[in-house]
Amino acid sequence: MEREEILTIYKAGPEAVINLIEHQDAIIAKLEKRVKSLEERLKKNCHNSSKCLPRNNITKLTSFK
Structure pTM? Predict the structure, then answer.
């Protein structure tokens, strides 16, 4: 968001500022949830996940590139 946009919202009054902050807060909450989910997926490996490919299958997949 550009500085001019922020000033325009500020000049529109408190309700406009509150709406902007609430909107951004909702976006941040969604992104935090997504980051947490992705971090959990990264923590999984062949030792703690049944969805991991065996090492030889990974080699076969990368050899097709």
Answer: 0.62
* Residue appearing with tokens 């490996």: 45
- Whether 59 has a pLDDT exceeding 60, the answer reads no
The label of the residue with tokens 């080699």 reads 59
SS3 readout for 5-61? HHHHHHHHCHHHHHHHHHHHHHHHHHHHHHHHHHHHHHHCCCCCCCCCCCHHHHHHH
What confidence score (pLDDT) does residue 29 get?
Answer: 98
- pLDDT exceeding 70 applies to what percent of the chain? 68
9 contacts: CB under 8 Å, gap ≥ 6: 16, 17, 20
